Q: What sequence folds into this?
C-alpha cells in the first residue's frame, strides 16, 4: 500500500452554509456521480467508444471549486481528459455532454470531441485536453486576456477568474513550471487546481516526484500554495473562495493541491490491478457524497427525504440525457471540414 499523507483538518462548524447552497452542492456532486455511472453502463453496452476516464470519487473538487467559489458561465474552466464532471459543474447541460460522448451533432463539441475534448464557449468551458499538462498554458492565456482587457483596454467588467484543473502527473511536466512562473510574474487571475488522486495511470505519485507535496512547489514562484482534503466539499469550497477572491482583486494566482482519489481505474479500459484493496478501502470510506449527505442531515440543515428527492431527480435527468443522445442525429458528412477554422458570427 502506498504511504498515505495525513489529510488536512478542516472545521466544518466554522463554515456558514445555507440550506439552499447545501442542496445545490449536494445536487451537483450527485449529478457528477450518477452521470459517470451511466457513462460506464453505456460504454460497456457499446454506445460510446475510445478511452473514457471517469471522475467517481473526485466530485468534491469540481463542485467545491466551480459551484462553491466561482461564477459558472462567467468565469473560465479548463479541464483534462477527465472532463465530463467539470463540464457539468460549469453548467453544460447533461444531455449535451452525453450526446458528445455518443458522438452526436447535438453534443457540446458538435460530436467532434468525444470524451476527452468537451468544450462550450457559452459556459466558459475552455476544453478538455487529452495530453498531460496541455491545458495549463491554455488556461493561463485565458487569464491573461482577462487581465489585458481590464488593465490595458480599460474594460472594468473584465474580472473573470480561470480555474485550471490537472492531475498530479502533470506536475512533473515542463509546462507546469514554465506557466506557473509566468502566471506569478504577471499576477494572472487564475487558480491552479491539482487533483492529486495518487496515481498517474499506473505510476504511484510518490515514486514519480522528488517532492510529493505539490502545494509546496508554489513557494518557488512566490505563489500561495494550499493543501486541502479533496474529499470534503466544504473544505475545497473554503480554500477556493479565498483563492478566487485573491485573483479577482488582482493579487495573483494560487496553487491548490486537493488530495482526492478516483474510485474507478484510470479509464474504463483499465483493469485497475495496480492499487491495493487496503488503499481503495481507505479512500472509499471517505466518499465525498455520502459524507456530505451525513453532515447536512446531522447538522439539521436538510431532511433525508430532501436528499432522496434530489437523487431521484438527477437519475431522471441522466436517463433523459441518454434518450436525447440516442435520438440525436450524427454529424452530417457535408460538415466534415467545418469547425477547423474560426467562423464569423
A:
Amino acid at each position: 500500500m502506498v504511504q498515505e499523507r495525513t489529510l488536512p483538518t478542516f472545521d466544518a462548524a466554522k463554515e456558514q452554509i445555507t440550506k439552499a447552497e447545501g442542496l445545490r452542492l449536494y445536487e451537483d456532486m450527485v449529478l457528477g456521480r450518477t452521470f459517470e455511472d451511466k457513462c460506464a453502463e453505456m460504454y460497456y453496452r457499446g454506445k460510446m467508444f475510445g478511452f473514457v476516464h471517469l471522475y467517481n470519487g473526485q466530485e468534491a473538487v469540481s463542485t467545491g471549486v466551480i459551484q462553491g467559489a466561482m461564477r459558472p458561465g462567467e468565469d473560465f474552466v479548463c479541464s483534462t481528459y477527465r472532463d465530463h464532471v467539470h463540464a457539468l459543474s460549469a453548467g453544460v447541460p447533461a444531455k449535451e455532454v452525453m450526446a458528445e460522448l455518443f458522438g452526436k451533432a447535438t453534443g457540446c463539441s458538435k460530436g467532434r470531441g468525444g470524451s476527452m475534448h468537451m468544450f462550450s464557449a457559452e459556459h466558459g468551458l475552455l476544453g478538455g485536453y487529452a495530453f498531460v499538462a496541455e491545458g495549463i498554458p491554455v488556461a493561463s492565456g485565458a487569464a491573461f486576456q482577462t487581465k489585458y482587457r481590464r488593465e490595458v483596454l480599460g474594460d472594468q467588467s473584465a474580472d473573470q477568474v480561470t480555474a485550471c484543473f490537472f492531475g498530479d502527473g502533470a506536475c512533473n511536466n515542463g509546462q507546469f513550471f514554465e506557466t506557473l512562473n509566468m502566471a506569478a510574474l504577471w499576477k494572472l487571475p487564475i487558480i491552479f487546481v491539482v487533483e492529486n488522486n495518487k496515481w498517474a495511470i499506473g505510476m504511484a505519485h510518490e515514486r514519480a516526484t522528488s517532492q510529493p507535496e505539490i502545494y509546496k512547489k508554489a513557494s518557488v514562484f512566490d505563489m500561495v500554495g494550499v493543501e486541502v482534503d479533496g474529499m470534503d466539499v466544504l473544505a475545497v469550497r473554503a480554500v477556493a473562495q479565498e483563492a478566487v477572491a485573491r485573483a479577482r482583486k488582482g493579487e495573483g494566482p494560487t496553487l491548490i493541491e486537493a488530495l482526492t482519489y478516483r474510485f474507478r481505474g484510470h479509464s474504463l479500459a483499465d483493469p485497475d490491478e495496480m492499487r491495493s484493496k487496503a488503499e481503495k478501502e481507505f479512500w472509499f470510506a471517505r466518499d465525498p457524497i455520502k459524507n456530505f449527505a451525513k453532515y447536512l442531515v446531522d447538522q439539521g440543515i436538510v431532511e433525508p427525504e430532501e436528499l432522496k428527492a434530489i437523487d431521484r431527480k438527477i437519475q431522471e435527468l441522466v436517463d433523459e440525457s441518454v434518450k436525447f443522445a440516442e435520438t440525436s442525429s450524427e454529424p452530417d458528412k457535408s460538415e466534415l471540414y467545418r469547425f477547423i477554422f474560426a467562423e464569423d458570427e
